[in-house]
Design goal:
Three copies of one chain form a homotrimer. By secondary structure, the first copy, chain A, is an alpha/beta fold. Chain A has helices at about 1-15, 30-35, 50-55, 70-85, 100-115, 125-135, 150-165, 200-210, 215-235, 245-255, 260-265; strands at about 20, 40-45, 60-65, 90-95, 120, 165-170, 175, 180-185, 270. Chain A has a nine-stranded mixed sheet, sandwiched between helices. The relative contact order of chain A is 0.16. Chains in contact: A-B, A-C, B-C. At the A-B interface, helix 5 and helix 10 of A face helix 2, strand 2, helix 3 and helix 10 of B.
């Protein structure tokens, strides 16, 4: 598996996919720079009049519902339809799903409009999507998924089956699952949660990895491992008086230099079936 | 007073308030990261359909009218109303008030819609608000408030009385006043004005400090002192060939490490009554 | 010529022009900070209700069509009209012209609404503008303009004549031309293309340089040389483990310290007539 993970990561630089983003304006600059750091290219466009064209000339689509509005939600649905038509991979980051009726509805409508390949969120966002799409939830998990890793992995696989997509639930332990397999990944550092947008950045790495053509579960897992490992490498370079602003830059810098071989030796995970 | 200032600052990390921002897209990323650096959490949402919900689940509201438009102005008024209903503190940053009719009107309408706890701006912005809300201004000040610090402090107290809020006027000397007391703060460096968004960042620190529950004047003064002191600490870490981009990161880094004890020893101010 | 270039650059700090930007939200923060680094001041405003007022109180206008929408396109045209009326310089950055019908139309409509002083883009964007404004193109160039520098320079001069503006085509070699003269500039590094927004940043430097009052061709050329030279200086300060995020900051830092004298000694160019 080390080899497949490493190959998935290296494929991003080899393929250099163009990723169309409709994303929030809080973290968009870091998202663009980490896309470039990984060897892919970003294009941001959110006007209904042009989104289908931009999706069509790209290799993958990354939709992020932070700072959503009615105009951009309409654009996301148009882009999702076009991506489905062209069989481009679509990564959905349901930022704040559950925090407002608008965001919960937005995630649901995007999933209905297109064919979501993978979803990356925190546990409460993923649980919100499950509640929206299922009257009898049948699966549940505590907010802390670390207590029983095997139970958490089974929950993630059930979530992936229900949502019809690879599901990446990031937190203290990251779970990346399809209906039959789940990676439980231990890379990363708690300090990453003190930076805005590490989740958004992880999502765009997953979109780039999917667009580079690897199998979806492996592609998404490689991106999540890369983000966590970059957080570890970056932390080693911090001076005692440096904080979250410099750490943010160092993580993108670490992605800029990260190779598949680094993942092969640095990724820490278990696989549940 | 040192003890109250220190306690107000430490309370931000203890309480970890969630701050709803409707803010400009120029400096929003730095605003989010400095909020996290201070130990609070940011949430950005500007769609009319969801702003009241987001305000309701937050602990404080920070409204910033840079890059305003009609849609976001409507959202700001809805959020201000909800914050007033819930008695959440509201910080207004009237960026560019006086520079256009829209911005002057926006500041006025937000003040009418909600209950502003504190306002942070430069002297021309605050003077613009006074002109909008009072036909006979009765108070005035030169653009340079440093010539006569006591007169400037009296002007700031009169402004706070008229505007019905704590007023923070930042510049070479920072004035933070309510109707009866004024802090004249000497922290900070001139080079901070060569970074975009140090004002916006100061505003969100004040919003976080207010939302943590301290008395409004002390809370706002502690935030302004913290921003200035962070500017001093950050400057010491700059290499001769580093400039405003790195300085920006270093200031957020300094906030990440700043403790109440540092304010107790590093803040430089006088109090006028 | 060294002296004119150096003087044009130093004039930005001397004049400290205020530059009104209607620009994309991806790179807007870096654009604001590099404007400040150069000694100018940025103001961002994109609401139709206020843009003419903001243009009127500024010294120059910088329009960038990345992340365009119908609302901001309308604002750009209003601002362009006001700038023409006041004879303020207008810099157009046609980001993605040719990538969608909207962007091609936007660039065309802005050029029709106002009086564009200078246009900065990559070769495909400039070629797209030529196609839009001319049925018989008469001029053409390969995507790689480095093969025959003199032919490329002649193409750029023809483009400038057709578009009625100074044209800056940035790439491996940067061409800055009016109808009769062309600078072919060799500063910069390939790694700059791995940072989002170096083009946008170059555009705002050109807008600032134009607004400072230098002759348009010299003003634009000085800005392009400054951006390239800053990329070279910044690269020297990078540690082996640093990447595009830190490089981005270092480039802005280098602009912060760059003086006309540095351009006089560090700029590398030929002039074609």
């Amino acid at each position: 598996m080390e080899r497949e993970i490493a190959a998935a990561w290296d494929r991003v630089r080899e393929a250099g996919p163009l990723i169309h983003h409709i994303t929030n304006y809080v973290t968009v600059n870091d998202v663009a720079n980490i896309t470039l750091a990984a060897g892919a290219s970003p294009i941001m466009a959110d006007c209904p009049e042009e989104v289908a064209e931009i999706t069509a000339l790209s290799n993958g689509l990354c939709l992020n519902i932070g700072t959503l509005n009615e105009r951009t939600l309409g654009s996301m649905k148009l882009a999702a339809e076009e991506a489905a038509r062209l069989k481009h991979p679509l990564l959905l980051d349901p930022v704040g799903a559950g925090a407002s009726a608008l965001r919960s509805r937005a995630a649901k409508e995007i999933m209905a409009a297109g064919q979501v390949t993978a979803i990356r969120g925190n546990v409460s966002e993923i649980k919100s999507l499950l509640a929206e799409t299922s009257h009898v939830r049948g699966v549940d998990a505590g907010d802390d998924l670390t207590d029983n890793r095997e139970a958490a992995a089974r929950w993630a696989m059930a979530a992936a089956a229900k949502l019809g997509a690879v599901v990446a639930v990031t937190g203290a332990v990251d779970l990346v699952a399809d209906a039959t397999h789940c990676f439980a990944i231990s890379n990363g550092r708690a300090e990453m949660s003190r930076i805005t947008g590490t989740g958004c950045q992880c999502s765009t790495l997953a979109a780039a990895s999917l667009a580079a053509g690897s199998e979806p579960l492996t592609a998404t897992a490689a991106a999540v491992m890369a983000m966590g490992l970059a957080g570890e490498i970056a932390y080693e370079h911090l001076q005692p008086w440096e904080g979250n602003a410099t750490y943010r830059n160092r993580i993108i810098d670490a992605i800029y230099h990260l190779q598949g071989q680094d993942l092969a030796t640095g990724a820490r995970y278990e696989i549940y079936e």
